[in-house]
Amino acid sequence: MERRNFIKKTALSSLTVAVGTEIVFGSLIPEDYQPLALQDPDPFTLFNKDKEMVVLNDKPWNMEARAHLLDDKVTPEKYMFIRNNGLIPENIDAASWTLTIEGEAAQNIKTYTLAELKSKFKTYTYQLTLECGGNGRSEFDPPAKGNQWTVGAVSCAEWTGVRLKDVLEDAGYTDKAVYIGYHAADVHLSRDPEKEPISRGAPMAKALQDETLLAYKMNGKEIPLAHGYPLRLVAGGWPASVSGKWVQRISIRDRVHDGTKMTGDAYRVPCSPVAPGEKVKDEDMCIIESMPVKSLITYPMSGAMIKSGQKLNIRGHAWAGELEVSSMEYSIDFGSTWQNCKIDKPQNRLAWQHFTASISFPKKGYYEVWARATDSRGTSQPMLLPGWNPKGYLNNACHRIAVKVT
Ligand SMILES: Nc1nc2c(c(=O)[nH]1)N[C@H]1C(S)=C(S)[C@@H](COP(=O)(O)O)O[C@H]1N2
Ligand SMILES: [Mo]
């Protein structure tokens, strides 16, 4: 009888408060059991996301936007995808948060508080495009393991912080420096404190770019918890995995950083093209650097209906990793012919660019609008799929929407 009285009275009363009504048979709830009503918190409320966002995984949390949700010129928090490799750190205290610069090629090991970073270094604000290396993975065949992102693992928010370059120069580094690697506060899914969920980085040249930030604000406010509060590395134009959230340490390495998800086949593609399904040895896989040219039609939604004789005004964004998008076109005949869109200059380097077009259709019926961007080196998006790769990265195929003219 003793053993059946599983739950303590005090615990029961707090559960009752949380559930908002009497828990009939509450005294029989096994110890350490969490009633369903308190499990699986609504992820949209939890992360301030719009209900139209799509949850791909809850352990860890991964969530993507749909194309039409990315219509804003600067992506608001509610439409920003979340990609976590581990568990979001808990009980963050920004007042005691520090960033340490260290590593084989660091002149000094130096630790800064957030307040020191903010007061010691000049502040910069940039719009920066962050796209997950696996965005578009769901279209590859044979399929690749991992989150089946469609088109929505991309964002362009406005980030404010100090330049990584200024901090690295303040700490000092030797001529042995080739790479930086980040170490962050998130927790491995196994909860093993010895393991890091992810620890990636970038060559010194990228680390020292003007736009590579240690950011403490997103869209003019403190960075939301899911996106790296209170301090985040932001390296626009590269796979977003380089932009370490919750960053606590930056190592200045004398070799290519070999942290978690830097080695093996992670965030790598075959150095030269392979046939779909082909096995590729790790040593024949190369680290992804600048992301490829890509675009997204954010208005209207696929499935738009318009009246015959009416023009359709489309809009969206285009980006090209480290490069600029130099031209933007659309096709209504499955890629046989292409017409120009109007494309704006980026707000700053590494920000996505906005395009518009006003489209006439020759007669009633079903159409698809395909959009194609070309970068400043003359490389265009592939119409259907780019080269297959084992991990399903870098799908920059033309985005398409269906339109009916009635
Ligand atoms: N510390 C830490 N940083 C991280 C990650 C992570 O799991 N932990 N995920 C990376 C990956 S793979 C991506 S695509 C981006 C996603 O950024 P977001 O969730 O702010 O959109 O964060 C990167 N930075
Ligand atoms: Mo990613």
From TrEMBL:
Cofactor or coenzyme needed: Mo-molybdopterin
BP GO annotations: sulfur compound metabolic process
Keywords: Metal-binding, Molybdenum, Oxidoreductase
Top-rank taxon: Bacteria
Domain Oxidoreductase molybdopterin-binding: from-to ranges: 87-259
Protein name stated in the entry: Molybdopterin containing oxidoreductase
Pfam families registered for this protein in UniProt: Mo-co_dimer, Oxidored_molyb
A GO MF term: heme binding
InterPro entries: Ig_E-set (IPR014756), MoCF_OxRdtse_dimer (IPR005066), Mopterin_OxRdtase_euk (IPR008335), OxRdtase_Mopterin-bd_dom (IPR000572), OxRdtase_Mopterin-bd_sf (IPR036374)
Annotated Moybdenum cofactor oxidoreductase dimerisation domain residues: 287-405
